[in-house]
Specification:
four-stranded antiparallel sheet; 4 strands; alpha+beta; 2 domains; elongated; Muramoyl-pentapeptide Carboxypeptidase, domain 2
């Protein structure tokens, strides 16, 4: 028995671009009955959970995927497509699917992944990378700091689009964050103290940073480094 109402079933078929249930069943090696039965329901929920999971990856706040293509999921799809300049519909066509399931989490060094530097606008104003790659020199500096402190580094702010940058208290208009050349970092047991933050700043300069600083009122336990 289906756990999706007729409205949700319609939303799913529209989202996936299937004209009717039979097409979906055939595409997914299910018995073609033309009726929304238990196996169709299970498969549809699995597909939807996968989409919801990827939307969360790109910054949507859907919570734990539930497999139901409701209002929040539809809004998240539209926002995702809008961020890419695609038509603002809930249709997951081939172009949208390719972007949605693109691997942006690839490793860019021994200890860092590209996705760690993703803009925190959550897809509201950009695709997460503002058209830039993370500076290799910046990553090299972070790797050296990690090796010397022997502690993992958390990127609290990496690439920023202009609108997200402007929304932050204390940010400057021409921040290097916009270009992939800056990161605010947190190191447990190190940047939690003033002495530790100063140590990280000295290391950043030692390894070639153009600028490094901290500001307790705005940055808390983070240190800013840019190249």
């Amino acid at each position: 028995m289906s756990t999706m109402s007729s409205a949700y079933q319609k939303n799913f078929l529209t989202m996936m671009g299937y004209k009717d249930i039979s097409v979906f069943q055939k595409k997914n090696d299910l018995e073609v009955t033309g009726k929304w039965n238990a196996k169709t329901d299970t498969k549809a929920k699995t597909v939807t959970k996968g989409i919801q999971s990827r939307l969360n990856y790109w910054g949507a706040a859907l919570g734990t995927p539930d497999g139901v293509p409701g209002k929040n999921t539809k809004s998240a799809i539209i926002d995702f497509k809008k961020s890419l300049g695609y038509p603002e519909t809930i249709l997951i066509d081939s172009k949208t699917r390719k972007a949605l399931f693109a691997d942006q989490g690839q490793k860019i060094s021994e200890h860092f992944r590209k996705s760690e530097f993703k803009c925190h606008c959550g897809g509201k104003w950009c695709d997460g990378y503002n058209g830039y790659a993370v500076s290799p020199k910046l990553v090299e500096i972070l790797e050296k700091i990690r090796k010397e402190t022997r502690k993992p580094i958390t990127i609290t702010s990496g690439i920023r689009c202009q609108k997200y940058n402007d929304s932050l208290k204390g940010s400057v208009k021409n921040s290097v964050h916009r270009l992939g050349g800056a990161a605010d970092i947190y190191i447990p047991g190190v940047t939690t103290t003033s002495a530790g933050k100063q140590k990280v700043i000295k290391l950043a300069y030692k390894y070639g940073a153009a600028y490094a600083y901290t500001n307790n009122s705005n940055m808390g336990t983070a240190v800013h480094i840019n190249v």
